Amino acid sequence: MENHNIDPKMLEMLVCPFTKTRLELSASGKELVSHAARLAFPIEEGVPLLVLDSARRLKEDELR
C-alpha cells in the first residue's frame, strides 16, 4: 500500500462521521484515526474512506 499525502487544510476540516471530533493522521500516513470512536479509517489513493464498512477498530495499545 502506498503512502498518500493529505492536504493539511483538508485534514483540518475532516471530522469523524460518528463523533464529529477531529481526525488525526496515523504515523504511517495511511489512516485517519478517531480516538473518540476508537476507529481508523483508511486512505486509498489519497481519498479518506470515512465509512464504517471501511474502518477498523483500534486496539487498546493504539489508543495511548
From TrEMBL:
Listed SUPFAM superfamilies: Trm112p-like
Superkingdom of the source species: Bacteria
Record-linked Pfam families: Trm112p
Family matches, as InterPro entries: Trm112-like (IPR005651)
Family per similarity comment: Belongs to the UPF0434 family.
Protein name: UPF0434 protein L1I42_00180
Taxonomic path: Bacteria, Pseudomonadati, Pseudomonadota, Alphaproteobacteria, Hyphomicrobiales
